[in-house]
Amino acid sequence: MNMQAKPTLRELSYAEAIREAMDIALSQDERVILMGEDIGVYGGAFQVTGDLVEKYGTDRVMDTPISELGGAGIAVGAALTGLRPIFEFQFSDFAALAMEQIVNQAAKVRYMLGGAVSVPLVMRFPAGSGTGAAAQHSQSLEAWLGHVPGLKVVQPSTPEDAKGLLLAALEDPDPVMIFEHKILYKMKGPVPEGYYTTPIGKAAIRRTGKDVSIIATSIMAQKAMTAAETLAGEGIDAEVIDLRTVRPMDRETVLASVRKTGRLLCVYEGVKTLGVGAEISAMVAESDAFDFLDAPIIRLGGAESPIPYNPELEKAVVPQVPDILDAARGLLKGRI
Amino acid sequence: MNMQAKPTLRELSYAEAIREAMDIALSQDERVILMGEDIGVYGGAFQVTGDLVEKYGTDRVMDTPISELGGAGIAVGAALTGLRPIFEFQFSDFAALAMEQIVNQAAKVRYMLGGAVSVPLVMRFPAGSGTGAAAQHSQSLEAWLGHVPGLKVVQPSTPEDAKGLLLAALEDPDPVMIFEHKILYKMKGPVPEGYYTTPIGKAAIRRTGKDVSIIATSIMAQKAMTAAETLAGEGIDAEVIDLRTVRPMDRETVLASVRKTGRLLCVYEGVKTLGVGAEISAMVAESDAFDFLDAPIIRLGGAESPIPYNPELEKAVVPQVPDILDAARGLLKGRI
Amino acid sequence: MPDTFKDGNVPYAVRAYSPEVLLAALKKMMLIRKFEEGAEDSYTRGLIHGTMHLSIGQEASAVGSCMSLTDEDKITSTHRGHGHCVAKGADLGKMFAEFFGKETGYCKGRGGSMHIADPAKGNLGANGIVGGGLPIAVGAALSAKRLGTGAVTVCFFGDGANNEGAFHEALNMAAVWKLPVVFVCENNKYGMSTSTERSTAVKNIADRSASYSMPGVTVDGNDFSAVAEAVDAAVERARSGEGPSLVENVTYRWRGHSKSDRNRYRTKEEIAEWMERDPIATMAAMLIDHKIIDQDGVAALEAETTQIIKDAITFASGSPDPDVSEATRDVYTQEAAA
Amino acid sequence: MPDTFKDGNVPYAVRAYSPEVLLAALKKMMLIRKFEEGAEDSYTRGLIHGTMHLSIGQEASAVGSCMSLTDEDKITSTHRGHGHCVAKGADLGKMFAEFFGKETGYCKGRGGSMHIADPAKGNLGANGIVGGGLPIAVGAALSAKRLGTGAVTVCFFGDGANNEGAFHEALNMAAVWKLPVVFVCENNKYGMSTSTERSTAVKNIADRSASYSMPGVTVDGNDFSAVAEAVDAAVERARSGEGPSLVENVTYRWRGHSKSDRNRYRTKEEIAEWMERDPIATMAAMLIDHKIIDQDGVAALEAETTQIIKDAITFASGSPDPDVSEATRDVYTQEAAA
Ligand SMILES: Cc1ncc(C[n+]2csc(CCOP(=O)(O)OP(=O)(O)O)c2C)c(N)n1
Ligand SMILES: Cc1ncc(C[n+]2csc(CCOP(=O)(O)OP(=O)(O)O)c2C)c(N)n1
Ligand SMILES: [Mg+2]
Ligand SMILES: [Mg+2]
C-alpha cells in the first residue's frame, strides 16, 4: 500500500505505532507539540504517549488541565500561528465539549478568511466500545466530524495505518481528525520502520473478492476480515474494503468494488442512523454503480441505543462477526 | 393532517405560531419555563418569544447569561427534577458549545439509569442560511442530533407544524430537539387556534404524485412544492413529502411513496455528506422498496463548504428551486 | 442546632448531632470504605468488566457533606461517586449489583460504576463526564426554587473539574439567580495524574468563589466535623434563600485514579502521610473521646458493616444478568405522555 | 518611556508617546468612528445583506489597547471587531470591500463583518462565536512562547463573553503556563440586551483575575490614556515573561447591539449620558490641552479621515463580486504539503 514504506517490518501494537509516529514527528519538527490530559508522566489514559515526555519534556508533551474546549481552542490558535499541535482527547466522547472549536473555528477559519490562513492541527480521538466504560466513554462519533467541511477524518484499523495516517495528518496543512479504536490499541501488526505516510482519502482493499463488497471502518475492518474467511469456506467470495478515511471518502475504490460484486454491505460501529454507512450507501445509490446492484444495500451499524455497561449487552449493541456473516449470507441468498 | 385541529384558521407567521404554542404551554402548565439568551425584554434574536416575558415574568421567561453549556445543563437538571424547560439557542450553531449536555447527558441519562428517570426537555434551534450571517451563524446541524439515540429531532416547515410539533414536544417525556429555519420565521400560513399537537415521527405528504418522490426537510419542503408546480406543467407528477421528523424517521411513509414512484430525490439544506438525505437514501436502499427503484437515488444537499457571506455565494451553496427542477428532470430523463 | 453552646473544645459535630446520628455517620463511612474494598477485591478477582474510581480516604467528605440533607434534597455526584451514593442512603446490594452489571442494580446493569444513581433518595447520579454534574445540580436547584419545594442540592465535583468551563458557567448562574445549591469541591490534590499546582492557577479552589460573589471556604476534608460544619452552614444558607456557596474539602485518594494507575505522579511518602490521616480513624477517635462509642462498639460496627457488605455482594453475585434481548430498552420512555 | 517624568497632571499617554504617535492614534479613532458610520449608512441604503455590530463609542478601547503592539504581535477580536481591526492597522478599503461581500475584501467576500481578519498585521480575526477567540489567543501566545518570537497577544472580548466557559478555561491555562497574553475585556455594560448585573455575579469583571492569580485592573475605557496605560503595562509584563493580565475597559456602545435592536433594555438617558463622554472628543481635548494639536488640526484630521472613508467605500463599491462558481474555494488548502 505505502510505496515509501521501508522494507524492514517489525510487529508493533497500534498504540506503539502511534507513539512511534509522534516520536518521529517530535524529533523531526520543532513545531510539533503534543497536548492532552495526562499524556505526560501518566503516559495517556491508554498509554499511547507513553514515555515521550521523558524524551521531549513537558514543554512539548503538555499535560492540559481538564478543559477540553479551551485546550482544543489553544491548539487551534497554536496551529494558526506556527505550531503543529497533536491534541489528544482522553476519550472521543469528550469532543462533545469542544465541538465549537473544532467545527466553528478549526474547520471554518480558512474558508471564512478567504484562504488567508490554514490550521495544521491534528486531533486524536480514542473511540469505540468494548472496555465496559458505558455510555459516556464508548461512542463512535466520526459521523459528526465527517459531516463538517474543512475537516478531514480518518479511522485507522491497523498499526501500519495508524502510524502512516498520523504522519500524513501532520503533513496536511488542514485539520485532520483521527479516530482510533480503543480495542485496537493492543493489537499487533507489522509496521514499517522510519518515516512513511499512508494517504488520507484512500481506502484499502484488504481482500479482493467477487461476490459481495464489505465496506467496513475501524475495528469492523478486522471483524469483516474474520467473517470473510468463514464466508470463503462457504463459497462466498467477499471483497473487504477498509474505508480508512471518512472525509473525503474514497468514492472510486468503493464504486469500483460495487460495480464488480453487485452487492454492498456496510459495517460500522457508530450508531446506524446517520452513521458512516449511511453515507457509503447513499454515495453508491446515487452513482452509476447503482445499476450494478443486485440486491438492497445492507448496513450493519450500532444499535439505536447508548452503549450499555454490562459486557453482554455491550457486545449486543455493536456488530459482531456473526452479524456480518448473517448479513452477507442474506445478501447472497438469492444467488446460492 | 392534525385530527385534533380546531376548524378556525388564521394566518400566523411561523414565529408567531411558535410563540402561540409557548404561550399556551406557559398558561396551561406551571412547570413550563423558557430559557435562553435575550428571550426576555429583547424578545429573542428572531423575535420568537416576543413579549411573553411581559405576560409571564422573568421567573418563567429567563434570560440566561451567554453560557450555552451551562444553560443547557441547567435545563437538563431542571427537566430531571420537575420542570419542563424550553431552551432556546440563539443560533443553532451555538449548540456546538452544548453538545456535551445534550448528547452525553440529556440523551443518555434515562438509559444509563435503567429507565429510572426521564428528561422532558425541549430545545429550539434557529438554523439555516439565508440571512447573510456567514459560516458560524448559518449551519443546519440536525444530522448531528439525528445520529443520537435518546433524542427526538424535528424540523417543522410550516407555521401549523411549528406550533403543533412544539406542543407535541412538550407532551413528550423525552428530550425533543426542534430545528426551526430562520428564513421561515416570517412565513405566514394557516394555524389552528387553541391546543393541538402534530405527531412526532410522522412525515407529511404535501402533494401526491406518481412519477418521483421528493423527500425534503425544513425550508426545502417549501422549495420542493414550488418545484413540483413547475414540474407538473412539464408533465412530471412529483410526490412531495415533508419529512418533519429526522429521528425517529417515518420509514413507512417514505417507503410507500418510493414503492409507488420508483424514483427518489432527497432535498435538504445541511451539508450533503452525512446529512439527513444520506439516511433517507440508505433507509430506502436497504428496504424492500429498493426493488421498486427505477433510477439512482439522488441527493441534493448543501455544498461541501461552510456558508459564505456574500449573498450570491450563499445561495449557491444550498439547493435552490432550479436545482430541484434539474434533479427531478434528470431522474425522469429515461422515462420521457 | 445548639448555637449557644460555644465550647471550643467540643467539635461542631458533637455539638450539632445526637449520638445516634453520629454513629450512623461513622457506620456510613465504614460502609463506604468496605464497599470500595469489596469493589477492588471483585475487580482483582476478575468479576468486573469496566473501570472504577475508588474513594477510599475521602469518606469524611462524602458523609459530612450530606448530614443535613433529607431525601427531598438532591445531590449530583461524580465518576468517584460510590461514597456520595452511600452517604445519601443507597442500598449496598443494589450498588454492588450495578457494579456487577446485574438487572437488579440501580441502573439495571446499563450504567455501571460511573452512573449509579438513586433518584428516590435524591441522588441524581454519578457522572462519567468531569464537570457534567455541575450545571445539572444548578438545574435541580432551579426546580426547587420555581416549584417551591424547599429542597437544596449539593453538587460534588473534583479539583480537576474546577477547570472545566461548566464550573464557571454553573457557579455564575447559580449566583445570579440565588439558587439553593452548595458546590462541594473534593480537592484530592490531583485530577488523574495532574496536580492542582500544574492545572489550577489559584491556591485554594474555594477562593474562586469570589468570582461569583458567593461564600467560599476551605476545610480539612478528612475531618468529618469540619466538613459537616461548613456544608451544614452552606445548606442552611441555601435553604433560607440566600443563594449558593462553595465548600472545598481538602482530602486525598489512597488508591490510584482508576484500575490502571501506576502512581507515577506522586510519591509513596505522600500517600503514606495521608493514610495516617485516616478520616474514619479520626472520626472514631472523636466519638470515643466524647464517649459516644467505645473500642468495643467500634469493633462491633466494623463487624456489622463487614457483614452488610458481604450480604450485599452475595445478593449482587446471585442476581440475574440483564436479558440481552433487552439491550436497547429504556432509550425512550415507553408509556404515552400524560 | 519617560518613567522619570512623574507629573501627575500630565496624562500617561502624553508622557509615554510622541506627538506623532498620539496624532496617529486620534486619527485611528476617527477612522473607526467614520468606518462605523459608513457601514451604518451603507446598511441603511440597503447595500448590506448580513448584520453588523458597530463599536461607535468604544474607539478609545480599541486604539488604546493596541498602542504598544507591533505587526508581530497578535490580536483576537470579536463580532464587534471593526475598531480592533483598524487599530491594528488594517486597510479601510479592504474592510469595506469585505463588508460589501467583494472579492477584494479581506476575506474575499466569504467572511463579512463578523470574520474580518488581517493576519499580515497580526489580527487573527473577528469571531462570530462569543468567547471563541479567548482560547485561540492563548494558543497564539503559546506559539510565541514555544517559538521564542517575543510576540504578545491581546485578546479582546466582551462583558457577555466573560460568562462563557471558554473564558475560564483560557485564563486558567494562560496563567498556569505563564503565557504572553493580555485579556482585554470591553465591558460595555450589556451582552446584547442583558446587563452585567443580570448576567455576571461579580461587580468588576477584572476582579475575576484573582481566580487565575493574574493582575486585574478596571479602567475608564473611554479614556484613551487610561486604557493605554493599563494595557501597555500588561503587554510589558507579558513580553518580559511574567504571564497574562486582565484589563477591563469600561465603555459603552452608542448604537444598538446589531441592526435589529429596539433598545428596550436601556434608557435614552443612559445612552445620552454616555454619549457625553465621547472618547474621541475626550482624546482630542487632551491633545489640544497639551498643545499637540489645535482645533484647526482636529478639523483637518476630520476632513482627512472623512476622505479616506469615502475613498475606501468607493474602492469597495467598485470592486468585483466573487465568482459564484468559486463558492467552495478555500475550504481546504490547495497546495501540497511541504
Ligand atoms: C470531560 C471529561 N474529561 C476527562 C475525563 C477523564 N477523567 C475522568 S476522571 C478524571 C480526573 C478528574 O479529576 P477530579 O475532578 O479532581 O476528580 P478525582 O478523580 O480526583 O476524584 C479525568 C481526567 C472525563 N471523564 N470527562
Ligand atoms: C456562543 C455565542 N452565543 C451567543 C451569540 C449571540 N451573540 C452575539 S454578540 C452577543 C452579545 C455579546 O456580548 P458581549 O460579549 O458583551 O459583546 P458586545 O456585543 O457587548 O460587544 C450575543 C449574545 C454568539 N454569537 N455566540
Ligand atoms: Mg481530584
Ligand atoms: Mg457587552
Verbal overview:
The complex is a heterotetramer, with 2 copies of chain A (336 residues) and 2 copies of chain C (338 residues). Chain A is an alpha/beta fold. In chain A, strand 6, helix 7 and strand 7 form a beta-alpha-beta unit. In chain A, helix 1 packs parallel to helix 7 and helix 3 packs parallel to helix 4. Chain A folds into 2 domains: 184 residues, Thiamin diphosphate (ThDP)-binding fold, Pyr/PP domains (Rossmann fold, 3-Layer(aba) Sandwich), CATH 3.40.50; 130 residues, Rossmann fold. In chain A, the strands form 3 sheets. Chain A has a 7-stranded mixed sheet, sandwiched between helices. Chain A has a 5-stranded mixed sheet with strand order 9-11-10-13-14, sandwiched between helices. Chain A contains 12 helices and 14 strands. Chain C is of the alpha/beta class and 338 residues long. Chain C has one domain: Rossmann fold, CATH 3.40.50.970. Chain C is built from 12 helices and 7 strands. In chain C, the strands form 2 sheets. In chain C, strands 1-2-3-7-6 form a 5-stranded parallel sheet, sandwiched between helices. In chain C, helix 5 crosses helix 12 and helix 6 packs parallel to helix 7. Chain C is globular and about 50 Å long. At the B-D interface, helix 3 and helix 11 of B face loops of D. Bound molecules: thiamine diphosphate (2 copies) and magnesium ion (2 copies). One thiamine diphosphate (TPP) sits at the interface of chains D and B.
List the helices and strands and how they pair.
The complex is a heterotetramer, with 2 copies of chain A (336 residues) and 2 copies of chain C (338 residues).
Chain A: E1 9-13, H1 14-28, E2 32-36, H2 52-56, E3 61-63, H3 68-80, E4 84-88, H4 99-106, H5 109-112, E5 122-127, H6 142-146, E6 152-154, H7 159-171, E7 176-181, E8 188-192, E9 204-207, E10 212-216, H8 219-233, E11 238-242, E12 245-247, H9 251-261, E13 264-271, H10 276-285, E14 298-302, H11 311-316, H12 321-332
Helix pairs in contact in A: 1-7, 3-4, 8-12
Chain C: H1 12-16, H2 19-44, H3 59-65, E1 74-76, H4 82-87, H5 92-99, H6 133-147, E2 153-158, H7 165-176, E3 181-187, E4 190-191, E5 194-195, H8 196-199, E6 216-220, H9 224-239, E7 245-250, H10 268-276, H11 279-289, H12 295-318
One thiamine diphosphate sits between chains D (53, 79-80, 128-130, 158-161, 188, 190-192, 257) and B (37, 66, 68, 90, 94, 97).
